[in-house]
C-alpha cells in the first residue's frame, strides 16, 4: 500500500511537471511557427535547456518517490528524449522535433502519476 504522505509530497512536483511540460510544448510549437513570420525571432536552445532542467529536477524527485514503475519509465524515457533532442539541436543546428514527443510523454507521465494520488 502506498504511503499517502509521500503522495502529498510529490503532488506539487506533478503540478510543476505538468505545467512546465505544457509550457515547454507550447514553446516548442509556437516558436517555430513564429520564426516563419519575419519578426526576427529565432529558436534558442537555452530556453529548451531551461525547461529540460526543470523537468529533470521534477523527474528525479518522482523517481525517488513511490510512484509506479510505469510512471517512472514514461518520465525517464521522456526526459531522455528531450535531452537527446536538445543535444542534436546544439550539435547539428537542426530541430528534429523529438522534443515534442518528450514533452507529450512528460505531460502523460505526470498526469498518470497525479491521478494515481487520488486512487491511493
TrEMBL record:
Report TM segments: 12-39, 45-64, 71-90, 96-114
UniProt entry keywords in alphabetical sequence? Membrane, Transmembrane, Transmembrane helix
This protein's GO CC annotations: membrane
Coiled coil spans: none
A GO MF annotation of the entry reads:
mercury ion transmembrane transporter activity
Superkingdom of origin organism: Bacteria
User: What Pfam families is this protein classified in?
Assistant: MerC
* Name assigned to this protein: MerC domain-containing protein
Amino acid at each position: 500500500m502506498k504511503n499517502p504522505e509521500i503522495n502529498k509530497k510529490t503532488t506539487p512536483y506533478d503540478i510543476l511537471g505538468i505545467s512546465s511540460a505544457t509550457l515547454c510544448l507550447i514553446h516548442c510549437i509556437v516558436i517555430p511557427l513564429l520564426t516563419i513570420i519575419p519578426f526576427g525571432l529565432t529558436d534558442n536552445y537555452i530556453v529548451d535547456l531551461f525547461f529540460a532542467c526543470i523537468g529533470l529536477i521534477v523527474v528525479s524527485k518522482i523517481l525517488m518517490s513511490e510512484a509506479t514503475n510505469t510512471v517512472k519509465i514514461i518520465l525517464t524515457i521522456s526526459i531522455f528524449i528531450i535531452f537527446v533532442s536538445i543535444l542534436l539541436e546544439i550539435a547539428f543546428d537542426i530541430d528534429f522535433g523529438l522534443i515534442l514527443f518528450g514533452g507529450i510523454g512528460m505531460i502523460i507521465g505526470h498526469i498518470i502519476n497525479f491521478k494515481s494520488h487520488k486512487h491511493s
